[in-house]
């Protein structure tokens, strides 16, 4: 384990105090978990305090923990990947949405403007609402799209399909006509399969 990670861990515990829900070092990376109510304050501290200076948001993504091995706890989370160029450090910050029926966390667009499209993507694909976002609308799917395709309960074939109708001379939406089927891979058990003869 890197001494740099351990020193960052101690700095985070000291500076953030009881706002730290959990700190984990795994696979050479540090993950900080904070409560949703404390997200904005913690993110300001991570950007502005001289011992941190995480000036860059590298990535933000949504997560759906439905049917995950950790069965208890909230279903949706947002993960932020931060970079401190000044200290040459990276940090992952995770926050869980407190309501599974209406997952929402505060927007960090005012802290890192690069979060704009990342938050729109997480909203579009997972249905996570970012409170205070200046323009929260779909980014990758159609405006009339129903549902959020990266949720684990979204049907694999979708809800509607789009096709061109030559009679109406336009694109139309209709219910999915694909029959769901289970695809089971063929298992080859021949002893010498693939050997050159």
Q: CATH topology, which one? A: Beta Polymerase, domain 2
Mean pLDDT: 88
Specify the helix fraction band.
10-25%
Tertiary shape: globular
**Can you list the strand order of the major beta sheet?**
1-2-5-4-3
Q: How much beta, percentage-wise?
A: 25-35%
Q: What is the count of helical runs?
A: 3
User: What's the structural domain tally?
Assistant: 1
Termini gap: 50 Å
How would you describe the overall organization of this protein?
Helix content is 18%, strand content 27%. The model has no long low-confidence stretch (mean pLDDT 88). It has one domain: Beta Polymerase, domain 2. Strand 1 (22-26) and strand 2 (29-33) form a beta hairpin. With 197 residues, it is of the alpha/beta class. It has helices spanning 3-16, 39-48, 115-126, and strands spanning 22-26, 29-33, 56-64, 76-84, 89-96, 104-106, 129-131, 160-165, 170-175. The protein contains 3 helices and 9 strands, in the order H-E-E-H-E-E-E-E-H-E-E-E. Strands 1-2-5-4-3 form a 5-stranded mixed sheet. A two-stranded parallel sheet has the order 6-7. Strands 8-9 form a two-stranded antiparallel ribbon.
SSE order and pairing:
Elements: H1 3-16, E1 22-26, E2 29-33, H2 39-48, E3 56-64, E4 76-84, E5 89-96, E6 104-106, H3 115-126, E7 129-131, E8 160-165, E9 170-175
Parallel strand pairs: 2-5, 6-7
Antiparallel strand pairs: 1-2, 3-4, 4-5, 8-9
Summary, kept brief:
The chain has a single domain, classed as Beta Polymerase, domain 2. The protein is an alpha/beta fold.
What would the keywords be for this entry?
197 residues; 3 helices; globular
């Amino acid at each position: 384990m890197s001494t740099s990670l351990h020193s960052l861990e101690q700095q985070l515990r000291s500076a953030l105090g009881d706002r730290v829900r959990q700190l984990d070092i795994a696979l050479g990376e540090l993950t900080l978990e904070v409560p949703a109510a404390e997200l904005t304050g913690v993110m300001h501290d991570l950007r502005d305090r001289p011992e941190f200076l995480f000036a860059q948001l590298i990535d933000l993504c949504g997560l759906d923990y439905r049917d995950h091995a950790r069965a208890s706890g909230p279903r949706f989370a947002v993960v932020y990947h931060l970079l401190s160029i000044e200290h040459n450090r990276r940090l992952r910050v995770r926050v869980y949405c407190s309501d599974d029926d209406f997952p929402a966390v505060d927007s960090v667009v005012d802290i890192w403007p690069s979060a704009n499209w990342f938050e729109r993507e997480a909203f579009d694909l997972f249905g996570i609402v970012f409170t205070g976002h200046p323009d929260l609308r779909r980014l990758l799917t159609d405006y009339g799209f129903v549902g959020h395709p990266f949720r684990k309960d979204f049907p694999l074939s979708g809800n509607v399909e789009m096709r061109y109708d030559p009679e109406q001379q336009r694109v139309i939406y209709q219910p999915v006509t694909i029959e769901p089927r289970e695809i089971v891979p063929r298992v080859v058990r021949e002893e010498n399969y693939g050997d050159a003869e």
